[in-house]
Structure formats: C-alpha cells, structure tokens
From TrEMBL:
<dbReference type="Pfam" id="PF05573">
    <property type="entry name" value="NosL"/>
</dbReference>
<dbReference type="InterPro" id="IPR008719">
    <property type="entry name" value="N2O_reductase_NosL"/>
</dbReference>
<protein>
    <recommendedName>
        <fullName>Nitrous oxide reductase accessory protein NosL</fullName>
    </recommendedName>
</protein>
Amino acid sequence: MLPRSAPHAVDFVPPAEDVCIVPPARVAPAMPWNPDSGLPIHAARPVPAEVRCPVCGMYPARHPQWAAQIIFADGAAHFFDSPVGLFIFLEDTERYDPERKADTVAALYVTDFAAGGWIPAREARFVIDSAARGPMRVANLPAFAGVEAAAAFARANGGEVIGFADITPERIAALRAVNHAD
C-alpha cells in the first residue's frame, strides 16, 4: 500500500465578494478575433469549448442557454457562463483581465433564453428574481430578445422583467450574494 500524501494547501483567501474561488494565477485570457472566421470584428461568435469564464472559471460552452460574451474594440472576446458573470465583469473589468479596460468594450451579447441565438445585451430583457437557476444552480438573469417572451417566462416562473439599464450595482450585489459569496 502506498503512503498517504499530505493534503495540498493553497495559500489563498479570496475576497468575500468573489463569486467563485479561482486563484488569481488562473486568468482566463480574452480570445483574439480570428479574421479567417468570416465574422465581422464585433459580431457575436460561437463559444469555444475550451474557454473559461474570467469571473468564475466555469466553461460557458457547457451552458449555451445562459452564455454571454463581451467583445472589445480589437475584436478579442471574453465568454461567460451567465449574464451575471458578464455584469460582474463589467463592474471591475481590470480585476478579471488586467489587459482590458471597460471603455474598450465594443459589444455585449447574451443568449436568448427562449429561442437561443445571440442578442445585443443592451436590447435584451432580463427576468430577475425568478425560479430559474443558472449554471451555478442559483438565481440568475435569463435574457430574452423581446418583452413578450420575458413576460411569459416571468408569468410561468415568477420574477420581474427588467431592461439592461435596470441592472444596477445593487441588483448585481444581491445576485453575487447567492452566487458563492460565502
């Protein structure tokens, strides 16, 4: 029988406001734009299977109904496992990617929860405080292309339909609190 090895310890204590525990050394770099993709530089693009959310470290491709993305002026993109991750990233861009600045964001996209496909985040309707659980199995912000689909979802699952501008730092803080803030 082999001797039992000592447990490994990481000398890292995340700030209380962290969503997930991803040590700082694990930075998820932005994916550069590929001019050979045939897509315009600021167009939404498919989520690569290997990319990780820069906020929590999850794999956005595993949660296509919830995925979101940010595209920067140079065409580089970050992908998120949910709209909550996107909004947390926007609040403190340089914390999650020291090479990027919030004022270089060119486009924001979220997945239409009902129909699939990418929609501009600033045009989306979100349902807050619904029974829907996101990739982390806690409250999230399902996104919809139209108010009718969002309202139908809210009637069936509870919650309130809001727009992009209604997603305040206070609302993100409340969502952050249920997304691994313990």
